[in-house]
Amino acid sequence: MLVAVGAIGVIFAFPGAAPAIGSLVLGENSYDRWKTRKIIMRLKRQRFVTIKENPDNTVTVTITRQGMVRALTYQLETMKVKKQKKWDKRWRVVIFDIPEKYKKAREIFRMRLRQLSLYLLQDSVFVSPYPCFNEVEFLRELYGIPSTVKYLLVEKLEDDQEIKEYFSLV
Q: Are residues 128 and 151 in the same domain?
């Protein structure tokens, strides 16, 4: 199981590794074992995985925290807020008050919200007409700031014409 979990993260971080890791996890011998070993050793050198040889001559490959961060970073690059076919007339408002000692996390969090195409209403307030709770929750957990970020579902937002235009809702 541990190998499978690590392999999933490795596949996200290194898409080209999928066939090799897949054959390793599934126990298929069709893929060249030398290439599989080479990929795993490269990941070990980069400190993305650890390798443990077991007494029964099996090997356990475990993804490290650094490897998980790499895998999650890869996911961040492809993460998007899914647009609804028909807007439900509700605004999703993300507000945060992240302390100065977490300034770097705050700036990265703000940058990620922009990358998700949320509208910047104020420095610490972003708005979206589309559901984005899962994405926001993922980001706040990833950056270790869950208690400083709030997600609101709002029926009415004053002076929302500019925001509607931003999202092409008019």
A: yes
CA of 47: how far to CAs of 39, 50, 70, 75, in Å? Answer: 12, 7, 11, 19
CATH number, domain of 109, equals 3.30.70.240
**DSSP bridge partners of 153:** 92
Residues 162 and 127 sit within 8 Å (Cβ to Cβ): no
Predicted pLDDT of residue 74: 65
More confident residue, 9 or 48: 48
> How many whole angstroms separate alpha carbon 160 and alpha carbon 155?
11
Is 56 within a domain? yes
> 39-65: per-residue pLDDT in tens?
888 889 999 899 998 999 888 899 888
